[in-house]
Write a structure and sequence with these properties.
Distance between the termini: 15 Å
Structural class: alpha/beta
Strand order of the largest sheet: 3-2-1-4-5-6-7
Number of strands: 13
Strand content: 5-15%
Radius of gyration: 20 Å
Shape: globular
Helix content: 40-55%
Order of helices and strands: EHEHEHEHEHEHEHHEHHEHEHEHEHEHH
């Protein structure tokens, strides 16, 4: 059995290593790893492969840095060539990026079955490029691996047949359990930055709704600077965000916080685990905050992870007032205990379902 796994962005590396480990433990399975190059920065790509022991990609397409349309189109063409050469039994895609959609479209046009990991997550905001990628990929897929009950219900409401949908839990939870101890042993990020556990706030920002709106971006950065006067704000700056900050003439605002280059996964785990609060627009970081029981302020109008809002660990903040954002960042709270993301065995369940489906079960 041959499976082509398509990845390209930092969160996908984390998800893919969980499933790859499970697949490669099964006899008769060969995985072909295709890295589109969507994240091409050293700190956004290669360091993750080293830290997570991800196998070297069989294909590195080197496509990134363009618009959504440019990236998706070029990836679609390049992935199609790979699939024609490899003739896999399955194409496996993850999440909601341009790489996800390109991999799914390339496969279905060649009549190759598609499996979507993290299916059924919706913000119901069609202005988000990620939302379009999710919906189209879900409807193109033959197997939909849902991380939560909410995701299953979303898929059923959209008319996707129930026999295509499998509730497996969240592969990010698998990764959090697997790598937490390794991060404790190896990461020196807190010492290097002079940080005390629970003595700082971690911030991340990369989504278009925040970075492409000059006013919104300025307000958020001003809020970070206000908070930094009272509690250190550690801000690993995504390359896309840094580019926008410089283009909009907002670079001076980064001087008001501890703005650092993107960090590897193990360093990020340590920063998340030990933060007093996390402010982010990242879906993955929202979940990781909960895994480590750190309150999270989500800098968006909505979230795919509605369970976290219901449980009280996650609060939404789409304010256009820097003072209001800063005040919410300085609050501290805890939520309810629950177990919405499975038992930490999602990777194994996905691998076993792929095998059994291939055999006709």
């Amino acid at each position: 059995m041959k499976i082509v796994s398509v990845i390209g962005a930092r969160p996908q590396f984390i998800k893919a290593v969980v499933v790859s480990r499970a697949l490669r433990a099964l006899p008769g399975v060969r995985e072909i790893l295709v890295h589109t190059g969507q994240h091409y920065d050293e700190n956004m790509s290669e360091v993750f492969f080293r830290e997570l022991d991800i196998p070297e990609p069989d294909y590195h397409l080197g496509i990134g840095g363009g618009t959504h349309g440019q990236n998706t189109g070029r990836m679609l063409e390049a992935i199609e060539r790979v699939l024609l050469q490899e003739e896999p039994d399955w194409v496996l895609v993850y999440g909601d990026t341009d790489s996800t959609l390109a991999g799914a479209l390339a496969a279905v046009k060649l009549h190759i079955p598609v499996a979507h990991v993290e299916a059924g997550l919706h913000s119901f905001n069609r202005r988000m490029p990620e939302e379009i990628n999710r919906v189209l990929t879900d409807h193109a897929s033959d197997l939909l691996f849902a991380p939560t009950e909410t995701a299953v219900h979303n898929l059923l409401r959209e008319g996707i047949p129930s026999n295509k949908i499998y509730l497996v839990g969240d592969v990010m939870y698998d990764a959090a359990l697997y790598y937490a101890e390794k991060a404790e042993r190896q990461s020196q990020i807190l010492t290097r930055l002079g940080l005390r556990p629970k003595g700082y706030i971690l911030a991340t920002l990369h989504r278009a709704e925040n970075t492409d709106d000059a006013t919104r971006l300025r307000v958020i950065l001003e809020a970070f600077a206000k908070v930094h006067r009272e509690v250190p704000v550690v801000f690993p700056v995504h390359p896309r965000t840094r580019k926008r900050v410089e283009a909009l003439g907002l670079a001076s605002l980064l001087n008001g916080v501890l703005a650092i280059e993107p960090v590897g996964y193990l360093d990020m785990v340590m920063l998340e685990k030990n933060a007093r609060l996390i402010a982010t627009d990242s879906g993955g970081v929202q979940k990781e905050a909960y895994f480590y029981r750190v309150p999270c302020l989500t800098l968006r109008e909505e979230t795919e992870w509605v369970e976290l809002v219901r449980m009280g660990w996650n609060r939404l903040c789409a304010s256009m007032d820097s003072f209001e954002i800063s005040q919410q960042m300085l609050e501290q709270w805890v939520g309810e205990e629950d177990n919405p993301y499975g038992l930490g065995n999602a990777g194994r369940l996905i691998a076993e379902r792929l095998i059994s489906t291939t055999r006709g079960n």
